[in-house]
From TrEMBL:
Residues 1-47 are annotated as: Disordered. This is DUF6824 domain-containing protein. Residues 402-482 form the DUF6824 domain. It comes from the Eukaryota. InterPro entries: DUF6824. It holds the Pfam family DUF6824.
């Protein structure tokens, strides 16, 4: 079965890559241009190596030597896939055929069944098989198959580690159903609302969710509470089908070396290493944002650099901590950004992340507005689940959803750009049509988009995304047609 799986995977991914990364569209700010120029000077602007590149020469050399060793045990396909993940080019991950998923799921089922039969003593798998409705759930297992890119043995390891860690954090109740906000203690809620770890309500340019962490959490929060909250957020990210297929982007910000849990708390680092290893969603790209005061800068005076032994030691310490935090699959998908908060966030735009969505101000203050909104959605969904009700709110629009609201912020949304293109194609025809013909053309536009897999969203009175009825969509499309003469061409939408 393993050989069949490998052959199927090779056939699927031997296809030519026909689509490329679309960098974050929009006009580049002046400060961002300076960041790009500085990055090019340091080596960021050139061709990427097969490992993650850094914009700090000294750190770059250390990290790439580590990544080079990691890559020695990988195939050419695995190295290429890691590079595509990091740069947002792995469009095939989102389009893996159902047959490949079924092959991987069947292989995972056989591995789990075999392990269950071979274990003589009571194991986590035996406990889960006896008590956990989730354990045999198809969707639950698919999460782990996708997280390990259809490798059944690794998927079984990850699933087993996930169940074990869930019991350790939440007790055996975690086997009954996914962790919900209802199991949080008051301290857990405080840790959650602090916003040091946030799952953004926006996506990157190819539709991946984005998890942002302020270091490994404040030092005054106890490790168990932090791990319970982080576990919950990763579980929430894994509910997203696109994230299961393509993984998520992770932004880890380390701007305060004195109080850094990453650098100063080995026990916390070990707990997060365990959590990352059993995450039900894979990390397809990791960005470590490091304050400029923590590293040997690229433009420092030569005498200053020569005298900065402690800074070099800190560089090595950062590398060592990150290396111990991440596994091989994560390390080869990791890149560093150094400088001020604004500079680090600006560099994220080259990886499809809108800097404006990062919940941290230029002074280091954590933004909580969107995070509080996200928490409201989780609480509402959990309450609806407990009461047996459906939950109509859409947490985070996908690239296959069209946002029927006003505002420049939605103009560059992938679904809205497709709508704009179609409206422009049919505008002249509709402009000279009769009233009845206009209604017919609007309906045809709706049906075309639905055939392409698009759905529509509007904001409700509480400012949450919901799906409208057909009548509302047709009314919104008719209004959208009137704006076509004012729409500017999309020729400048892509930047290199």
């Amino acid at each position: 079965m393993s050989q069949h799986h490998d052959e199927a995977t090779s056939r699927i991914f031997a296809l030519d890559q026909t689509q490329r990364q679309r960098p974050l569209p929009g006009k580049m700010e002046e400060g961002q241009k300076k960041v790009q120029q500085k990055s090019v000077k340091a080596g960021d602007g050139g061709a990427m190596s097969e490992g993650a590149r850094l914009d700090i020469p000294f750190l770059q050399g250390i990290w790439e030597s580590i990544v080079a060793k990691d890559q020695q045990c990988l195939t050419h396909f695995e190295r290429s896939e890691a590079k595509q993940d990091l740069m947002g080019d792995n469009v095939l991950a989102a389009s893996a055929p159902r047959t490949l998923t079924e092959v991987a799921l069947n292989a995972l089922n056989k591995v789990l069944d075999r392990r269950l039969q071979q274990q003589s003593q009571v194991s986590i798998l035996q406990v889960a098989a006896a008590k956990s409705p989730m354990y045999n759930d198809r969707d639950f297992r698919i999460m782990f198959a996708r997280a390990e890119r259809m490798n059944p043995t690794k998927a079984a390891d990850r699933l087993t580690a996930y169940l074990s860690y869930a019991i350790e954090l939440f007790g055996q109740e975690a086997l009954i159903e996914p962790v919900q906000t209802t199991v949080f203690t008051p301290i857990d809620e405080q840790v959650l609302r602090a916003g040091w770890i946030q799952l953004l309500l926006t996506r990157d340019h190819i539709g991946r969710r984005i998890l942002v962490m302020e270091d490994l959490g404040p030092g005054d929060f106890s490790p168990p509470n932090k791990m319970r909250v982080a576990f919950f957020l990763l579980q929430a990210a894994a509910k997203d089908d696109d994230s299961q297929k393509m993984g998520i982007q992770v932004v880890l910000q380390v701007f305060d070396p004195v109080n850094s849990s990453l650098l100063n708390r080995p026990s916390i680092r070990e707990q997060f290493r365990r959590l990352f290893a059993c995450s039900p969603v894979r990390f397809s790209a990791i960005h470590i944002c490091v304050g400029e005061g923590m590293c040997s800068g690229t433009e420092a005076d030569e005498t200053e650099v020569a005298a900065s032994t402690s800074s070099r030691n800190r560089d090595e310490e950062i590398i060592s901590c990150v290396e111990s935090l991440l596994g091989v699959d994560e390390r080869i998908r990791t890149t560093f950004h150094s400088g001020s908060i604004i500079e680090c966030h600006s560099r994220l735009s080259f990886f499809g992340i809108n800097p404006d969505t990062i919940p941290m101000t230029s002074t280091g203050r954590v933004k909580l507005k969107d995070h509080e909104k996200w928490i409201m959605i989780q609480v509402g969904r959990d309450r609806a689940y407990q009461q047996g009700r459906t939950f109509p709110i859409v947490e985070c629009p996908t690239n296959k959803q069209i946002l029927l609201v006003k505002g420049r912020h939605v103009a560059r949304h992938e679904g809205n750009m497709r709508l704009r293109s179609l409206l422009q194609e049919r505008y002249d025809e509709r402009n000279i049509a009769t009233r009845a013909q206009k209604i017919s053309i609007t309906s045809e536009v709706l049906e075309t988009l639905q055939d392409e897999g698009y759905t529509f969203l509007v904001k409700n009175n509480a400012d949450f995304w919901v799906m409208p009825d057909r009548k509302t969509v047709l009314e919104k499309l008719a209004i959208a047609f009137r704006t076509v003469p004012r729409l500017k061409p999309l020729s400048n939408a892509k930047t290199s």
